[in-house]
Amino acid sequence: MSRASTLTAPLRHPDFRRLVTGRTFAEFGNAVAPVALAFAVLDLTGSAVDLGLVVGARSLTNVVLVLFGGVLADRLPRSVILQGTETAAAITQAAIAVSVLGGFASVPLLLGLSMANGAVSAIALPASSSIVPQTVPAPLLQPANALNRMLSNTGRFVGAAGGGVLVAAFGSGWAIGANAALFLFAALSYRRLRIARPERTGKSRPFAELAEGWQEFRSRTWVWVVVLQFMLVNAAAAGGIFVLGPAVADETFGRAGWGLVLAAETLGWVLGGVVAAHWRPQRALAIGVAFVLCNAIPLLVLAKAPNVVLLVGVMLLTGCAIELGAVAWDVSLQEHVPADRLARVYSYDVLGSIIAVPIGQVAAGPLAERWGREPVLLCGAAVIVVATLLALCSKQVRGLRRSTPESAPIA
Questions:
Q1: Tell me, what CATH number does 337's domain have?
Q2: What tens digit of pLDDT does each residue of 160-200 get?
Q3: How far apart are CA 141 and CA 22, in angstroms?
Q4: pLDDT at position 402, please?
Q5: How many domains, in total, are found in the chain?
Q6: Has residue 140 been placed in a domain?
Q7: Predicted pLDDT of residue 393
Q8: Of 95, 191, 244, 264, which sits 20 to 30 A from 321 (CA to CA)?
Q9: Domain that holds residue 186
Q10: What does the alpha-carbon distance between residue 236 and residue 380 come to, in Å, rounded to a whole number?
Q11: Residue 200 within a domain
């Protein structure tokens, strides 16, 4: 089978086509949102501290509710969860747009709406992450995950570039309004997705089911080691890229340039997805974990040489490396974790990966005001390097192998 046929084979399955259509629209909207919201807050107060509080509020709500999102996704039809959450996301983003365009936006209002949007995202994340195996046969998991992420990242690429241009040309309010419309299109796409309800019987016991998911999570050393790695990596990257990055861009190469920098990373995700669909090393997880080292490079460039051309190049490389690691991680979980517990394991994965993100976002501004942006960015890069090297010390991370034979037929 040709390389092109391998990559597009999952599209023969109707539910997979519906899934990736909805995900692409959703990620298009998600890419516009951080660019527009960041500059909306900066226009309102000019404070990196306020920006950290607003973006951190959304992440904090994710942390609080994501585990219960996993319980819901292992009990309810995941397609229904996705329809409802995308509709709610459209409503919350529309409310933010109206407040900005109407001139009555305030930090407390944006905090509240960001928290509402974070609650919606917390419910959606486990369902979105665990639904792919229900749409394609097992031999198609690798190309399906790669294609799913590649199309989603194409939406992010267009959204990040478009978000920067929209903010520069028309203002942050119209950009946020556009992303609300994209969430609505995603909800409509999910309407035709027909995925069976997970096969669980008996009375719902949320806390007992959370404990069952925790046991599944902690019983695999390679799972919690990688999640711990990303707890540190994501905190450092979130503070450096999403809080200090816009402030650096505002003082150097401009807002439209920052949109191009973010778009370059998403383009790297697309390129990484193409490679991941065909490249199937037996120890994919270890290689993917090592690629995380690339996350330190953009922080080093922002600290030492905030040049738009250089940043576009390093973010392209970083995005490609991130995607190779992300596909390896998704396939590893989907192959080694039982299907009826997968969403809950994903929920612990998401919780561990984002629990420190609000700390990184909220702390970045005050730390930069106290010590300067350059030292904070350099410390963030050091955290990423140390966390990755420690994860690679695990024998399970280095030794985990693919369970689906490379020669399995693709159909």
A1: 1.20.1250.20
A2: 677 777 777 777 788 888 878 888 988 888 887 777 655 55
A3: 19
A4: 74
A5: 1
A6: yes
A7: 92
A8: 244
A9: 3-193+206-399
A10: 5
A11: no
Residue 201 lies in a domain: no
Give the model confidence (pLDDT) of 255-298 as tens digits: 778 878 888 887 888 788 888 877 777 888 899 899 999 999 99
Question: For the chain, which residues score pLDDT lower than 70?
Answer: 1-6, 59, 160, 196-204, 206, 403-411
For residue 251, which amino acid is it? E
